[in-house]
Structure prediction request, 370 residues.
Amino acid sequence: MRVGVPKEIKNSEYRVGLVPGSVREYVANGHEVLIETSAGVGIKVSDADYEAAGAKIAPDAKTVFANSDMIVKVKEPQPNEWAQLREGQILYTYLHLAPDAKQARGLMESGVTAVAYETVTDPRGGLPLLAPMSEVAGRLSIQAAAYALTAHQGGRGLLMGGVPGVLPAKVLVIGGGVVGTHAARMAVGLGADVTILDRSLRRMAELDELFQGRAKTRYSTFEALDEEIESADVVVGAVLIPGASAPKLVTREMLKGMKEGAVLVDVAIDQGGCFETSKATTHEDPTYVVDDVLHYCVANMPGAVPLTSSHALNNATLGFGLMLANKGLDALRENESLRNGLNIHNGQVTYKAVAEALGVDFVPAIEALG
Prediction:
């Protein structure tokens, strides 16, 4: 199979779908890899590095899309990219289709087989291809919040960890999954006063054991959320319903009770955001203010650290990617975990939560594959 890697074109996106080490694995499995020129510049990898790994260099994205059986990317295809996809081609990347009807329609019309990293599962029901970027985003959320809290950024003028005699910032993390856990770890490491809201008693017990009292857990109810929001200096939205739009947990009304200059970081923005006032921003212009509360809603947070992110992502995606390259659609028929990543095939939506969010018919993946 010919595997193509175009250069990412989303705003401030410097990651790359395949690093040279992964290229070597595809080549060793008998596949041809076509890399768009300069695709690796964001991670300090040259065309010569890719050629040394066995790849061929394409002069532009058009050549990659036109001559590849499978496209491996990082972020969802942009309009001029999905227009180049075609029936019989496999797209393997993050998609986040639930809040993005335009992209979903574009992929459906193209006839492509679209496999989304964020819904591929492991045998325990985890999300192994989403996890590494969730780890990065969770950690970055606290870096972003600490910077946004400074006075010249419009924040409250607080040092996250305080100093002797001065209280640290209060950080509320909504959701105790991968993002929330890594956000809490970073905040605890900086000396912040951290509370994690979750609705799983088992998960809260695990978090209590992990943090040994350095972070508090609280069962998430409307009352608990109201109380914690009012006292928080930083709120990190870290909720996830696999494949579906994020629930709007923090309303516009709640902002009125928050401290002036408090910071909201919405890590769920790829799935539409979990704050009612969230709208996607970029690394070039990451924040905006609503009711005196600073919002940080960058839709590709891990893109700020592309060297770390690209390698972490490749570590997770390589195995399933090789399955697809080696067996094509049979890999989806034979492997349930990989099949759970199938979101669109031959114009049909094959992931239930996406179909429900978009208001279109759902066709089970195994049925669509035939």
